[in-house]
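Two proteins follow. First one:
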Amino acid sequence: MAAQKKVIDHVSGWLTVYDDGFVDRTWTGPPQLKFMSDPVPPHDHFIDGVATHDLLIDAAKSDLRVRVYQPEIQEPGKLPILLHFHGGGFCICQADWFMYYNIYTRLARESGAVVISTYLRLAPEHRLPAAIDDGYSTILWLRDLAINKTNHPWLSGRGDFNRIFLIGDSTGGNIVHQVAKKVAGETLHPLRLAGAIPIHPGFIRSVRSKSELEKPQSPMLSLDMLDKFLKMGLPEGSTKDHPVTCPMGEGVQGLDLPPYLLCVAEEDLLIATEMEFYEWMKSEGKKIELLVSDGVAHSFYLNKIAIDVDANTSEQTRKLIQGISYFVGSH
């Protein structure tokens, strides 16, 4: 009789790791929330003003793919490009999940921008810096499009490669900062980073912050999720003081970083360290704006149920999209 596999780690609702290395990401939380992690197939036809495409951009690098959100805009001219990195503690989520589809089709439509979301490799099978490398590889693919080294029938003609914005949710916001730093030290002409938009980034320290101790936990973020996902995602032997999760204090003075729009939520467990990052960037002389969402928690805008039933969540989501759209339009 074959020996049964043993569970060696479990993150409630999201992920189970077995002793043979297998990782099961089947949703086991409340059934009414499962739809948010269901994949949405791409569709070449426009639905509510947006079409989506999945593209293989680097077959030699773990079949690296992206999802493209194409807004239905008839006017001539080039459109800004939002390069999106999904969250999930470096361990869960995919670019085609409904929770991202629901919000990024809306952002593409309302901002008039192309959104490109990278299918990031996940830990613990692929620990950091794998996801950062995938984000940077996507930048290099965009550079190849900009110099006509490769071609996409729609992006090559309509994408404005002089107005690239990095945007990321939760730990995707950490990747935004890391990719922005990496790009700042290189010449990618004619590609230009016009801005960076970390939304509720997973900035944290080994010692619990005031907000971690006092703010309410939720299915979108709990202290158990924080601890376990980061232990699986960071390089072996690292603590939460690793530069990816705790960038405050890194030398950025000599880096030509783009303007930042840091988006935070008033009830986020991580708001204390996010605000520490904000103050630190200002002290380093970097351009950074702040967008605060009132009365809501981490990644609130990804929860369609809350958007539909709670007036404040709906209003704060509207203001978040409006604020991001204004930032993109003014840079």
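Second one, unrelated to the first:
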Amino acid sequence: MSIIDSWSRNDWSLMAVSLSTNVVKLYSPVTGQYSGECKGHSSTINQISFSGPSTPHVLHSCSSDGTIRAWDTRSFLEVWSVTAGSQEIFCFSFGGSTDYLLAAGCGSQIQFWDWRNKKQVACLEESHVEDVTQVHFVPNNQNKVVSASVDGLICTFDTGGDINDDDHLESVINVGTSIGKVGFFGETNKHLWCLTHIETLSIWDWKDGQNVASFENARSLASDGWTLDDVDYFVDCHYPGEGENLWVIGGTGAGTVGYFPVNYGGAATIGPPEAVLVGGHTAVVRSVLPMPSVQGKSAQSHGIFGWTGGEDGRLCCWLSDDSSEINRSWISNAMVMRSPKTHKKNRRNPY
């Protein structure tokens, strides 16, 4: 179990989970009820994402089988797909000035399609020399797209006009080691966090390429903040919204996860965890889906903190400390719900 996403992040009406069997399963994130599954990929699913408000019932997925597929979550049927030929597809993002571009990391290339007619409109082949692990259109600046790669580079492109490597590459940041995940945060999304495959964390101003903070010993800093086992890996970073803190989410081999606040103004530090999810997983946690910071009536009324998926095959729902008693009928062999009374002193809602 590797990736979790939800629609909508305001009312949590549906949650998608990708499995190692190359299938995407759908659940209600509030009740845990299984809805159905989408089958079609023949290799590892690398990213899943729900569509925007205009098409709320469409789920997208990309795979090492070289395809990006769109699924209707009401019928669980594929509604369209694009292919990158023999290239594995590791990531994708929708954006552009008119919101019609689909960008994807396909091997070391960045390919672009017009998702309305599924025709390829550009292919960037020279900016990266190894697999592209991340592509993101910049929030509130949809003409800009940022890519990150195993080659250690973060590139920013302008997608206006005819897209090409020579004229549209605006900046390059050299992180120096293989990049796993990046994301935007801060006022006007001016900052970029970057997690690498050797578990380092760095903060950048993506517009001018300036390094704001570097945490080469991020695991040690996080491990010093609690009395539990050492932090072995980082799952993700979480930024609820403007004015909120940035958290790096770290985990242990035994399945415990902590939300560690990242302080990058002045002295760069990682503080003690402000939430600890313990007792649900027995192996490495691969994906975290936090409850949205926006008031969501369904999730909020049940006191749901978020969901996690791990290598133990478990899908765990975590309850906030102020949540009501759990509905025991939600429990099944496929998911574990933690009682709000269990480890309550170790878990605090950081929102």
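SUMMARY FIELD: The helical segments are 165-168, 218-223, 297-301. DSSP finds three helices and 29 strands in the chain.
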